[in-house]
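for the recovery benchmark. tokens below, seq after
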């Protein structure tokens, strides 16, 4: 813990209230009068579009990789592919989570 944990608690609490109020205003702005079935339909269509885009980009990157090097001639143990950064995965999950929250019309206030 830091030198002054009470100050940290107060600042975190204040930031949480500020963020909650701000998100409440934003969610009220985006609220539309749709049924739950419509929101689920929008969510499913969006998930399918995101999944299709992800598969398309994966295929495109695989084709580019095969064009740059011959994967069939390499031994299986010598080629390891890692994501460039976990930030990309976390950003994608966060963006999708925000979309789900606003699509379902959840209120924070």
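predicted aa per position
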């Amino acid at each position: 813990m830091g030198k002054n944990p009470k100050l940290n608690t107060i600042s975190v609490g204040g930031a949480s209230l500020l963020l909650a109020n701000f998100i409440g205003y934003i969610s009220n702005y985006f609220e539309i009068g749709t049924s739950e079935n419509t929101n689920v339909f929008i969510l499913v269509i969006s998930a399918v579009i995101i999944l299709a885009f992800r598969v398309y980009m994966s295929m495109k990157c695989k084709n580019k990789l095969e064009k740059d090097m011959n994967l069939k001639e390499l031994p299986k143990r010598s080629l390891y592919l890692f994501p460039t950064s976990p930030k990309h995965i976390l950003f994608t999950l966060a963006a999708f989570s925000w979309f789900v929250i606003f699509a379902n019309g959840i209120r924070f206030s």
